[in-house]
Amino acid sequence: MTLAVRRTAFPSRVTVVALLVVAAGLVFAHRLYRTAEISLSGAVLSVVSSYGVDVVPERQTVYFGLGSDTPLGLRMTPECTSAFLVLPLIVVGAVMIALRPRIQSRVLFALGVAALAVVVVNQFRVLTLVGLVNWLGVDTGYYWGHTLLGSMVSVFGGAAALVAFVWLATRK
């Protein structure tokens, strides 16, 4: 009795390798990703804030409330970036494509939607933190915005992105 192993089609193999390269890039170039993410936060805050906003990309820091009584700087640390929520989605997507090449387009679409959702959720988390600092002051607002409510936003947003990814990738 011989077991035949189905080989992955060439384009699917290229996609799998590309996804794994992107995943490795997120790990090894996370500083660059965090710089882009905090720059996006600065752009969003500039639109919604009535006070000054400044981004220092080399420190992955956004300063907001400039000119107010409660200016504050937020640094995008490795633990707070959306990269580590996107990373498992990319790896799972690569595995799914390797195992079932015919669902490649669905997986890539689902991966794009889920990754975008995770990035948006992380931006919403930053906005929540800024709003609570402006409302409750630096000490209380930062605690509620970063530790408690910010974590809940990340967990629920990440879970919703994961559900969307699985649903979009596996539906027929």
TrEMBL record:
<feature type="transmembrane region" description="Helical">
    <location>
        <begin position="81"/>
        <end position="100"/>
    </location>
</feature>
<keyword id="KW-1003">Cell membrane</keyword>
<keyword id="KW-0645">Protease</keyword>
<protein>
    <submittedName>
        <fullName>Exosortase/archaeosortase family protein</fullName>
    </submittedName>
</protein>
<keyword id="KW-0812">Transmembrane</keyword>
<feature type="transmembrane region" description="Helical">
    <location>
        <begin position="148"/>
        <end position="169"/>
    </location>
</feature>
<keyword id="KW-0378">Hydrolase</keyword>
<keyword id="KW-1133">Transmembrane helix</keyword>
<dbReference type="InterPro" id="IPR026392">
    <property type="entry name" value="Exo/Archaeosortase_dom"/>
</dbReference>
<keyword id="KW-0472">Membrane</keyword>
<feature type="transmembrane region" description="Helical">
    <location>
        <begin position="107"/>
        <end position="136"/>
    </location>
</feature>
